[in-house]
Recover the amino acids of this structure.
């Protein structure tokens, strides 16, 4: 008889590279698609309708916060509701699902939100010392937030930075090492100190391949969303699948938006077929599913994972 697992167990097995099957799944339809399925099914809980295996928790930080501010730990603890996060994580686990922290971007995204992307890139070249100080102040607060999620008991701390365009990195690899790796190391170190057993997932849209071995060195456990339109997913799994779990991999821009249901099913089969013993994959579209995604492709996505899991756990 094949083993059965809760959604949380499937996610944790994937994050710990104890796969391949059974593959956990996740997706995030846009509000229009979500409303379509709510009306069609009469069910409000789309996580249950689609059999999704994880839930993101609401954000524990205030709506307005100066990430470059130098504040005391006591003031930080007053502003952030990590006790509430802990209660929410417990509730998610009680449903048998994995509790994933709200996404907290890193220093790159936060800095260019303040400076603008062009302004930040110019700062890196014209005033590197001041820019490093600015990034370090942001990193201190980002590390506190990530550690707060970890201490609250989430299963996966979800961090990252959108470092890629469709075809290349947004900064040169050497610039990433000089400016953005040290803050990331601080954040990862804070998570490990707060909760050594928590998994760390790193998000970056776009072309991310050159940074993958460095992310592994820093201590990232799971890479999300591995957009197949921008990356050679098979190559990434072949080179790094024994050291890194993956989350995503199904083209939101391609198969989900413009493919047929059969093409979606084949994409799921092709992706899951890359993963053997000692690997991990959370199957998901590699971005939010936009209104032009045919609803039948969501149904095909879910059905295909069910089929793969039945075949793989017999």
């Amino acid at each position: 008889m094949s083993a059965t697992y809760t959604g949380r167990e499937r996610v944790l097995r994937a994050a710990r590279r104890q796969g391949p099957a059974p593959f956990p799944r996740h997706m995030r339809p846009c509000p229009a698609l979500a409303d379509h399925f709510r009306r069609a099914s009469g069910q409000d809980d789309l996580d249950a309708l689609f059999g999704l295996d994880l839930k993101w928790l609401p954000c524990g930080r205030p709506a307005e916060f100066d990430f470059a501010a130098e504040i005391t730990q006591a003031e930080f603890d007053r502003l952030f509701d990590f006790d509430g996060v802990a209660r929410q994580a417990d509730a998610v686990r009680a449903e048998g699902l994995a509790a994933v922290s709200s996404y907290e971007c890193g220093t790159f995204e936060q800095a260019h939100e303040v400076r603008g992307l062009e302004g930040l890139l110019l700062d890196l070249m014209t005033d590197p010392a001041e820019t490093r100080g600015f990034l370090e102040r942001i990193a201190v607060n980002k590390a506190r937030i990530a550690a707060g999620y970890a201490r609250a008991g989430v299963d996966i701390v979800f961090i990252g930075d959108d470092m890629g365009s469709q075809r290349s990195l947004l900064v040169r690899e050497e610039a990433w090492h000089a400016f953005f790796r040290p803050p990331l190391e601080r954040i990862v170190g804070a998570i490990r100190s707060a909760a050594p057993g928590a998994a760390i997932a790193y998000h970056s849209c776009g072309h991310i391949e050159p940074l993958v071995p460095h992310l592994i060195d820093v201590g990232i456990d799971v890479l999300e969303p591995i957009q197949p339109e921008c990356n050679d997913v098979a190559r990434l799994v072949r080179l790094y699948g024994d050291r890194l779990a993956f989350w995503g991999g199904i083209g939101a821009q391609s198969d989900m938006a413009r493919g047929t249901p059969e093409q979606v099913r084949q994409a799921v089969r092709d992706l899951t077929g890359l993963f053997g013993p000692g690997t991990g994959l959370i199957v998901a579209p590699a971005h939010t599913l936009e209104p032009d995604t045919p609803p039948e492709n969501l149904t095909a996505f879910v059905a295909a994972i069910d089929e793969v899991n039945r075949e793989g756990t017999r």
